[in-house]
Write a structure and sequence with these properties.
Elements (H helix, E strand, L loop, with lengths): L12 E2 L6 E2 H5 L3 E6 L6 H12 L1 H6 L2 E7 L3 H14 L8 E3 L4 H5 L14 E6 L5 E7 L7 H16 L2 E2 L10 E3 L6 H7 L5 E4 L2 E4 L6
Parallel strand pairs: 3-4, 4-5
Antiparallel strand pairs: 1-2, 3-6, 6-7, 8-9, 9-11, 10-11
Helix pairs in contact: 2-4
């Protein structure tokens, strides 16, 4: 069964390049980004893992832990990490799950038979501290992931969780946001949004981004 937004991310225990991982315990009170790869020593994935390592400070700033997955064993991951560090001029600073028995791949529906009967598709999950799945994206094998977009979505999720707002198309951190339509009491709006708002239509009300919690 495929996982849907709002579902609890399945817990698991699995080996990794950093030793055994008990997923929910490892996440703790952090947000998580779990992303899968079809195999070690693949070119697009090599660039993605290097980029993820370079974004460590950005993830930490948002209280996010990153964890990758491939169906290859730990010894293969160890050799691949050496390639990633050398070619991408960084150091992998997050675990790569060694899902040789495909336990996690099956839990997260990462084997799509019409794409491949053996390799995992390149899916990504954003998981909040309550262990709920908040974003799912599945990429084709030929297209590298846009991690700027992943960070943008996490910024939006964290902002909208703490304020009665939504973020418009192409929103970036610092841009105006939308007051949710369910909020109609003028006094409550005035209190929540002291900077005021612009009513483009009765249902589209733009206001400066509130301060993050």
């Amino acid at each position: 069964m495929s996982l849907r937004l709002g579902d609890i991310a399945p817990d698991f225990e699995q080996q990794s390049s950093d030793g055994p991982i008990s997923f929910h315990k490892w996440l703790g009170d952090s947000w998580g980004v779990l992303f899968s790869h079809p195999a070690d020593f693949t070119p697009v994935c090599t660039t993605e893992l290097g980029l993820t390592a370079k974004l460590k400070d950005e993830f930490t700033k948002r209280n996010v832990k990153a964890i990758a997955l491939s169906v290859d064993p730990v010894d293969s991951h160890t050799k691949w990490i050496q390639d990633i560090n050398t070619t991408q001029k960084t150091r992998v600073n997050f675990p790569i799950l060694a899902d040789a028995d495909r336990k996690v791949a099956e839990l997260y529906d990462l084997i799509h038979p019409n794409a491949s009967t053996t390799a995992t598709v390149r899916s990504l999950f954003v998981i909040d501290p309550a262990k709920k799945i908040r974003l799912t994206i599945t990429y084709p094998a030929s297209t590298g992931r846009n991690f700027d977009e992943i960070l943008r979505v996490i910024d939006s999720l964290q902002l909208t969780d703490s304020h009665s707002v939504a973020t418009p198309g192409n929103w970036k951190d610092g841009d105006d946001v939308v007051i949710v339509p369910s909020l109609q009491d003028p006094e409550v709006i005035k209190k929540k949004f002291p900077k005021g708002y612009t009513a483009v239509t009765p249902y589209l009300r733009l206001t400066p981004q509130p301060n993050k919690p």
